[in-house]
Amino acid sequence: EAPQEEQELLEHKRAERRRFLKQAGGFAGLTLASGWAALAPGHWPGSLRDPDGERGKPKQKSIRLPEGGYAVPVSSGAALGIARGTDIPAMIRASIDAIGGITNFVNKDDVVVIKPNVAFERVAALGATTNPDVLTALIDIVRSAGAREIRVVDNPIESPESCFIKSGIQKAAIDAGARVYLPVHSAFETLNVAGATWIENWPFFWRPFQGATKVIGVSPVKDHNLCRASMTTKNWYGLLGGRRNQFHQDIHGIISDLALMMRPTFVVLDGTRVMFRSGPTGGSLSDVREGKTIAASTDSLAVDAFGWDDLLRRRGEELPAYFSKAAARGLGEPDWRNVSRKEEQVG
């Protein structure tokens, strides 16, 4: 018979597992084949932690994303839509309407991947992760366009289960009817990114992209101690596996590679709150201020440059080097004033 302490620890872990599955909305019957991380009793929450950035081992098989990515031609609308206010659903709709409207991007029967930032085990108010209310509003508007399935995905730096729960992203996604994909080793394949400097062949969180037809990124606005700013372009880092911590030696180069890797349908910049210092992890409410802004764009560099100037309030300071590196590859316009844009006050 196991010692009393071991029995209590085992029961505690089982209770934690039951709590996780309950918060997951009762989807305990879903298997790894459907994209969920099936957690064995006694292996929560440490089993999926990734302190050394090694989750997702390289494999021999190589895959590629669709030619041209997930972008769609839009006949009308601006390249950058900016909405200010406090009514988040109205701001989401206004910002997307400004760039052409959701039905120009999402059609009936689309399978849509939404990539929030869930990197850290932080409550939403600290600004280190995507605002769950913004995610809810985005899922709702995507569904209104007739999407058949909506998948919410990230490969957090800290424990995925804890990050998704603590940030409120898991509850927001499931309550809104989306499916959450957690990273497990079998979910990664080696992605070929032709022309990339660092990730020409690199482990990629592939399972949620199987059968996907559209991809939307939704990222908070954050200070970053290495690259100076983390927004929609940096957000794609959360799709990489392997020893990604090595990229810190050339952080601007890897972010430029990320812009090459992922050509999304559009991106949403979550400026409802802004982590203006101590990024990317933060940890204090004193590092965060209200932004009351949401911006949508078909140009990640343009919307991120807007975030740099307007929301981080660094107008007049030189943009981080990854902007010019990505622009030199023809991946966007870092001068957001040069793109067509529409701004609206709502709510």
Notes on the protein architecture:
The protein is of the alpha/beta class and 347 residues long. Helices cover 26% and strands 20% of the residues. The strands form two sheets. Strands 2, 3, 4, 5, 8, 9, 10, 11 and 12 form a nine-stranded mixed sheet that branches. It has a three-stranded mixed sheet with strand order 1-6-7, with no helix packed on it. A hairpin with an 8-residue loop joins strand 6 (188-192) and strand 7. Helix 2 crosses helix 3 and helix 6 (251-261) packs across helix 8 (321-328). The longest helix is centred in the N-terminal third of the chain and has 20 residues, at 4-23. The protein starts with a helix and ends with a strand.
| Portion of residues within helices | 25-40%
- Class by helix and strand content? alpha/beta
Rg computed from alpha carbons, rounded to a whole number of angstroms: 19 Å
Could you spell the SSE succession in H and E letters?
Answer: HEEHEHEHHEEEEEHEEHHE
* Number of helical regions: 8
- How far apart lie the N and C ends? 62 Å
Bulk shape: globular
What are its keywords?
9-stranded mixed sheet; alpha/beta; 12 strands; 347 residues
In short:
The chain is built from eight helices and twelve strands. The protein is an alpha/beta fold and 347 residues long. The relative contact order is 0.18.
List the helices and strands and how they pair.
Blueprint (H helix, E strand, L loop, with lengths): L3 H20 L38 E2 L16 E5 L3 H11 L12 E6 L15 H13 L4 E5 L6 H7 L2 H7 L3 E3 L6 E5 L8 E5 L8 E11 L3 E3 L20 H11 L4 E10 L12 E10 L2 H12 L9 H8 L12 E5 L2
Parallel strand pairs: 1-6, 2-12, 3-4, 3-8, 4-5, 8-10
Antiparallel strand pairs: 2-11, 6-7, 8-9, 10-11
